[in-house]
Amino acid sequence: MDDVVELISETSEVDEDFNAVGRTEARRVFCRVRSVSRAEFYAAGQAGLSPSLVLEVFYGEYNGERIALFHGKEYAVYRTYRDIESDTIELYLEDKVGVTDGSTDR
């Protein structure tokens, strides 16, 4: 693994006034960048998705996060793939409307 990605988890809690309060938590993990295959690009496009890149991380370090901050840009994790013979999991990322460019403070 030769790069780093921040995996961002989002949770919602209820405060004392019964208002939903959203919280985010970011964790840095090592990753390997892979390009999106032609078949993946086509299949995702058919489903209305816009794949950008694939990140490979160690399986034990991924906890179902749906947002990844990579090189200052936020992406949505639209699917994952794990080969059971490997200790890694592939995170398929896309640019998504509503996901910021990473310029907001967390």
Structure description:
With 106 residues, this protein is mainly β. It has one domain. It contains 1 helix and 6 strands. It has one helix spanning 38-46, and strands spanning 3-14, 20-34, 51-58, 67-70, 73-81, 88-94. The chain has a 6-stranded antiparallel barrel with strand order 1-2-3-6-5-4. The two termini are 26 Å apart. Mean pLDDT is 86; it is low at 101-106.
- Number of strand segments: 6
What is the 3D form?
globular
Let me know the average pLDDT: 86
N→C terminal distance: 26 Å
Q: Number of helical segments?
A: 1
Tally of structural domains: 1
Q: What is the H-and-E element order?
A: EEHEEEE
Low-confidence stretches: 101-106
Strand proportion: over 45%
Q: Helix content range of the residues, please?
A: under 10%
Structural class: mainly beta
Strand arrangement, largest sheet? 1-2-3-6-5-4
Largest sheet: 6 strands, antiparallel, barrel
For this entry, give a set of tags.
mainly beta, globular, 6-stranded antiparallel barrel, 106 residues, 1 helix
Summed up:
The chain has 106 residues and is mainly beta.
